């Protein structure tokens, strides 16, 4: 099966949900994160909504700014993607 290259893939959606959850768990607003990243709140918002795709280096910067351990974040992401895929496989068809 071919993998989708869309930034709106299920996997990328899981990534965005986890990134946002990590920011919220750190009790940071988008403005707080933007200041730490030396970016604008609009930049953070676009990243979290999937309007701007993050690469690995930028994701690592986000993790550092949030105070999250990047390897642990990657492991959480992998587990969340696997869980999402498993849920999709067992979901009843409509």
Short description:
With 94 residues, the protein is mostly helical. Helices cover 69% and strands 0% of the residues.
Q: What does the secondary structure layout of this molecule look like, with pairings?
A:
Elements: H1 10-25, H2 30-37, H3 41-49, H4 56-66, H5 70-90
Would you kindly provide a written description of the structure presented here, covering whatever features stand out?
It is a single chain. It contains 5 helices and no strands. With 94 residues, it is mainly alpha-helical. The protein has one domain: lambda repressor-like DNA-binding domains (434 Repressor (Amino-terminal Domain)). Helix 1 packs across helix 5 (70-90) and helix 2 packs across helix 3 (41-49). The two termini are 22 Å apart. The model has no long low-confidence stretch (mean pLDDT 90).
The name of the CATH superfamily reads lambda repressor-like DNA-binding domains
Query: Share of helix among residues?
Result: 55-70%
Q: How many structural domains does the protein architecture include?
A: 1
Radius of gyration: 14 Å
Structural class: mainly alpha
Order of helices and strands: HHHHH
Low-confidence stretches: none
Would you count the extended β strands for me? 0
Largest sheet: none
The appropriate CATH architecture is Orthogonal Bundle
- CATH C-level class is Mainly Alpha
Write down the overall mean pLDDT.
90
CATH topology: 434 Repressor (Amino-terminal Domain)
Summed up, the helix count is 5
How far apart are the termini?
A: 22 Å
- The backbone outline, from C-alpha atoms, is globular
What portion of residues belong to β-strands? under 5%
